[in-house]
């Protein structure tokens, strides 16, 4: 009789607090406006957003967790690509001539509201890392 293996996945509720704390730390490092923070999180209601920000806890949906995961991956890639943390954190705000960005900043691309744009920026940086 085969033993049942326990799932290696962590329930989303267990990830929500650490994900929110990481996101708000990233938002501070990137000097993101509140409106931009909400947009990157998928436009949660204002009251929900402020509750998350105040408590650094909450129950996040799959979409929000996915968004935060991409953003943390982008942050990590930038820390690897740029030895100076200020340069790494400022990159998201600078105009970029890559055809992917069309002269806009990565942040402008990410603020479209689509999870796909977070993915595209992450993929671009992963490719830059090699």
Automatic annotation (TrEMBL):
Residues 13-73 form the Antitoxin Xre-like helix-turn-helix domain. Pfam families: Xre-like-HTH, Xre_MbcA_ParS_C. Residues 78-130 form the Antitoxin Xre/MbcA/ParS-like toxin-binding domain. One of its GO terms (molecular function) is DNA binding. It comes from the Bacteria. This is DUF2384 domain-containing protein. It comes from Dyella jiangningensis.
